[in-house]
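Q&A log
Question type: sequence-to-structure
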Amino acid sequence: MLTALLLPLLLVAAGGSVDLYAAYNQRLHMQNQLDGAMLAAARESDYDEQKQTVTDFLSAFDEETNDTEETVSLAERLQVTPNKDGSLTGGYAQNYPTSFLGLIGVSALPLSVESSVMGSVSTATSTPASCIYVLGNQSQAVLINSGVNLKSTNCRVDVASTSAPAFIMNSGSTVQTAKFCVRGTNYIKNGGTLTNLEVGCLANADPYAGKLPEPTVPSTCTTSGVKDGRTITLEPGVHCDVTFNGSPTITFKPGLHIIKGRMIANSGSTIIASGVTFYFPDVNSELRANGGLTFTGTAPTSGTYKGILMFEKTSNAANNANKQQYIFNGSKGETLEGIIYLPNRDVTYNSTTNQTARISLVANTVIMNSSNWMLEPYDGGPSTGGSGSQTVRLTK
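Response status: OK
Response body:
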């Protein structure tokens, strides 16, 4: 009889230990998530952006774990407070639903964590600069196929995807960069060489979002239709659905060239674009080369579009929601220098570089096929909010 009376108490005690241990592990996980969110937020200069960054960072985690009968919104359980010394403090609370303690009326254990960060700007940086930003949060955001040979001394690649797998790398490929930073932790590597991979890494955010000046597109076309000739020169302006017959040498004069619709250069063509900015007013506009292309493109070094080699319209929500493919086919040789801002494009890179490309590429996803790509950071573009690198650290 005594055993029968004590059995429920023993069950609650043993089960309660299990609940407490699980709650302890959950709190550690919450602390790690909050620390990561606060470090990301410290890189923003505006308080509203800081708070939104923390909220976005925690949203997916919170939806997965806050499974209680009385749901309290994340906004009510999350606090982000700026401090007088320039630091930022975050507090995050969550209930852990118990399994055994519910027998004695304890259905949930309240958990809370706190984190503080300090951000500062320094004129020198010890971390590599980003050359490629892959923004899409989807499976296989980066695909590295056999035959890829990407080499860089000072570049980092930033992959924002947390999906499974965030990237796939196949055998027979080599990617040697200063850092290959992937926000997610799930990936597939079927072989090949990939140096300096870091998963669960705080990928750098899009540095150009909302900062590139979009031009007004004139209603009339400067160039349109089919063009013949071995040598063709194009003035700055609007080029509407242009096709070049044969394999000409096409020279774009310095300035802004708006590509409206599809511009097609046949195999064997040569494109020279020095001091040029290409602008695509929608995701269906592109400069397409049918392979065998020699392409030299450098961005302006001054003026409104300083540092911008290619960019697209991003101020239209419908345009942003309609991701499209963009193919680089400079298979005979390519020299690029400047910002290539295509956040609404799934970029496929089939090119070979004769010289080191100095670029800052932003894309939704990236596929690298058989390509020889020498890459280093581009630092001649417009200011993105600071004169130096930003150093952030946890203070609590």
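Response note: Residues 120-125, 385-389 have pLDDT under 50 and may be disordered.
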